[in-house]
Amino acid sequence: MFDLASIYEAKSVSAAIRALEDDPSAVVIAGGTDVLIKVREGRLAGRRLISIHGLAELEGIALTPAGDVEIGPLATFRQVAESPVIEKTVPVLGEAVDQAGGPQLRAQGTIGGNVCNGITSADSASTLLALDARLRVRGPRGEREIPMAEWYRGAGKVNLAPYELLVKIVIPRENYEGYFGHYIKYAARNAMDIATLGVSCMVKLSGDRTAVEDVSLAFGVAGPVPLRVYGAEAAVRGLPVAEAADQIGPAALEEVSPRTSWRATKEFRIQLVRELSGRALREAARKGGAVL
Amino acid sequence: MIQVWNAVVNGQPVELGIDPRESLADVLRERLGLTSVKKGCEVGECGACTVLVDGTAVDSCIYLALWARGKQILTVEGLQEPDGALSPIQKAFVEEAAVQCGFCTPGIILSAVEIVGSGRTYTRDELRKLISGHLCRCTGYQNILNAVERAVHEAHKFVGGEETQE
User: Fold this and answer.
1) Where are the alpha helices (DSSP H) in A124-265?
2) Of A149, A148, A145, which Cα lies nearest the Cα of A168?
3) Chain B contacts of A192, Cβ < 8 Å?
């Protein structure tokens, strides 16, 4: 049995928000794959939980008439990976979340939890950042939309008030249409491991598929929170694909700040940034039809 | 804080009182005596506690029992035939000598039930990925993979009707 004060099962989003207003110190639980482990470790022991598990209004993955991709935060990694909508619009996101944990965890953990826990190694985070997804959150006074670029506030901290809930992850059509993406997770094992470094690259090619018309590059574990390297992106925009791939890694080094942990040293992570950035760009461009 | 809990466990409707702070593994093991559900790491890494909830393999140690209310739950106890015979998937594990200490076996068999139930075939690499959420402390992975491969192959042969063509 878990060491908890209580568990409140919210029957709707509005009920969950009311419960959070009444008790801002309560912990929201969705898939449970992070929260229950922290409870067991003691970090969240004795707390009151508000469960949003199974709330239909927070589930589902759909394409709006305007072509935006809308992901319910309770969509599991497995549902994202198997979604025909994701495969058609942002296959890189499905590929990224398919590398988290193992099959059972992917059937339990949610994409909303992955971005709300603010963890730098989150496998969905770098791709959502590269896509500049928008996070729609709801509180007692209504909804607001936050671009991924303004989401992270520090290790484990996100732009979410204690009484707010993430209700939708939106990938605007203009952010994915014409782009091809690739995610590389570097870890010691192929399964059941946390990324030593994660890199996600989105590329839009020129009409003749020889040059990089637009590019975005985002990392997990290259700093305390997932981060974009805007300077490196600007430095290679317009270059032929091979040149861009050669230059983006060294350019990205100016903007990352990895540290040493028991998983890997700072120096090794810097080497991974230098090496994997270009590989991710090259592979994304290849998916887009560039001949390399 | 005992709450009434209903579910269909191994085909049988069950109603009992649970504490909402219990994991599904707690309820299955302690209240229903289904000890094929093993507690290994208790943090969702080893897969020994795997059960099927509405046909999907989950780690029951990090799944609150109250979330399973009204759902279909399958443990290895539910695979047994009425006369006590093993299911074809269990037999495949025996045939391939895929069992050493046996601690990881019930969980992997349930993942195999989900895999076989999909009705499609898989490459060995695909199967490797599909059982990657299980750790075998005896490290007998090759025989386990052989057993899952055999179970998928035999089920497909049957479903595909290849036997009747021969």
Assistant:
1) 125-130, 173-176, 230-236, 241-252
2) A145
3) 45, 132-133, 135
How many residues are given for chain B? Answer: 166
Sign of CA dihedral A102, A198, A77, B122: negative
- The number of angstroms, rounded, from the C-alpha of A28 to the middle of its chain's C-alpha atoms is 19
> What is the bridge-based pairing of β-strands A48-51 and A6-9?
parallel
3-class secondary structure, B125: helix
Q: CB–CB of A192 and B43 under 8 A?
A: no
Contact at CB, B134 and A101, closer than 8 angstroms: no
Of A3, A103, A192, the CB nearest to B111: A103
Distance CA A109, CA A111 (A): 7
Q: Could you give the domains of chain B?
A: 3-77 (3.10.20.30), 88-165 (1.10.150.120)
Cross-strand bridge partners of residue A55 = none
What is chain B's mean pLDDT, rounded?
94
Residue A189 to chain B, least CA–CA distance (Å): 10
Minimum-distance CB partner of A37 among B21, B43, B58? B43
Supply angle C-alpha B26, B29, B32, rounded to 5. 110
**CA distance from start to end of chain A:** 56
| Complex ipTM | 0.94
Of A100, A264, A91, which Cα lies nearest the Cα of A193? A100
Q: Spell out the domains of chain A, with CATH numbers in brackets.
A: 6-51 (3.30.43), 56-174 (3.30.465.10), 178-287 (3.30.390.50)
Mean pLDDT of A24-37: 97
pLDDT band at B159 (very low <50, low <70, confident <90, very high): low
Please give the C-alpha separations between residue B4 and each of A41, A155, B7, B124, in angstroms, as whole numbers.
Answer: 28, 40, 10, 44
Q: Which segments of chain A does DSSP mark as H helices, in order? A: 13-22, 35-41, 77-82, 84-89, 91-97, 103-108, 111-116, 125-130, 173-176, 230-236, 241-252, 266-287
Report the candidate in A166, A197, A245, A167 with the shortest Cα–Cα distance to residue A99.
A197
pTM score, whole prediction:
0.96
